[in-house]
């Protein structure tokens, strides 16, 4: 089912937060009286360009803008969230914004870049895009406790009233929740939501995270989307489900197994995503802890390969031949900016179409069970083992480096080098993991 974005009426009460997704995947902005929301929509809220480079630890990364300049954040009336705690003082209201510079869309705005990339997908393939970001998260990460309750009704019951409240709030806010269930890890949950068109899937990812965090607060819990909590054994993935939709709802990505026509388009698009797998990780799994989650044997994604029923590959074909056929990109997490993650995946797919890449062979075995020579023969490549390796792959990847506007690319690379330095100062991998658990 395709549903619209999270739509809501902002009430005149309380505050509304107007913000955007920054380079480290956080939602940042300013709050204003809700009664002023209309005025803000036309004038925009004043914002400093360098705020895009706020780091996860409370500082700011070196960036091309410094203390000068001003952009305006214009809230998009189609990207609103208003949820109300039953006995709360005022609603929790949030509006996502586009950034403008001198009255024009700001080149470095991640949401704007995704919109331009979507227009290019439509121009080249004739298709629109549907996406759904499937989130895993943990309640109170780091708290001791057994997790023998994986996938059980008891784990859900033990977390009440959180799960029941969450599903009601998500449904009322238009997220089209498909499930809320206890996952494998300790106090780990998953919430897949219905697909949304164009950039709205990425909007929904940011809004969903804030909703989950807020509803957890209502029952005195803390929700964390960190890629992996120390000792959890299993990570919190953000699997990006993606479909191209042409005339009559037909998806070339559903025709991956067919040769000719739309089948060839889908095959080249998917092959492009797999071909750029290493560089994509720099934008989709972009923090030092991301690489504690990724890797063989974690059911996250260990290899740049296309697969069917296979949870060790970068890209999975889901439901081929059915009307809901699509692909699932598995090497993403919530430290990524969802606009950059989705945009980069689309840019990689487009590069595959432009180069008319031959299909990536479908791997239905766990690549770790093949000997290295056989993996090489099949063209199955390991994903980067660290953020440093992923950044090196991005630097060498002309198509993806060139897809990022120069200022945004400089700011992004400076942020990631800065983040690596700061994380190294935190100490052991466990200490780094705990810090990310608190932050995300
Ligand atoms: N938790 C796994 C991850 O880190 C995903 C497990 C699943 O397939 O749902 O991506
Ligand atoms: Mg899962």
Note the topology.
Elements: E1 15-21, E2 27-33, H1 37-43, E3 45-47, E4 71-83, E5 92-101, E6 104-105, H2 110-125, E7 128-139, H3 153-159, H4 162-172, E8 181-182, E9 188-191, E10 196-197, H5 200-218, E11 223-224, E12 238-245, H6 262-275, H7 277-284, H8 290-293, E13 303-307, E14 313-318, E15 326-329, H9 338-354, E16 362-363, H10 372-377, E17 381-382, H11 387-396, H12 398-403, H13 406-425, H14 429-439
Helix pairs in contact: 2-9, 4-5, 6-9, 7-11
The structure holds glutamic acid and magnesium ion.
Magnesium ion (MG) binds next to loops.
Report the end-to-end length measured between terminal Cα atoms. Answer: 30 Å
Share in β-strands: 15-25%
Based on the structure, what is the oligomeric state of the protein chains?
single chain
Number of helices in the DSSP assignment: 14
Number of strands: 17
Characterize the structure shown.
The structure is a single chain. By secondary structure, the protein is of the alpha+beta class. The protein has two domains: 2-105, Glutamine synthetase, N-terminal domain (Ubiquitin-like (UB roll)); 114-439, Creatine Kinase, Chain A, domain 2 (2-Layer Sandwich). It is built from 14 helices and 17 strands. It has helices spanning 37-43, 110-125, 153-159, 162-172, 200-218, 262-275, 277-284, 290-293, 338-354, 372-377, 387-396, 398-403, 406-425, 429-439; strands at 15-21, 27-33, 45-47, 71-83, 92-101, 104-105, 128-139, 181-182, 188-191, 196-197, 223-224, 238-245, 303-307, 313-318, 326-329, 362-363, 381-382. The strands form two sheets. Strands 7, 8, 9, 10, 11, 12, 13, 14, 15, 16 and 17 form an eleven-stranded mixed sheet that branches. Helix 2 (110-125) packs parallel to helix 9 (338-354) and helix 6 packs across helix 9 (338-354). The model is unreliable at 1-7 (pLDDT under 50). Bound molecules: glutamic acid and magnesium ion (MG).
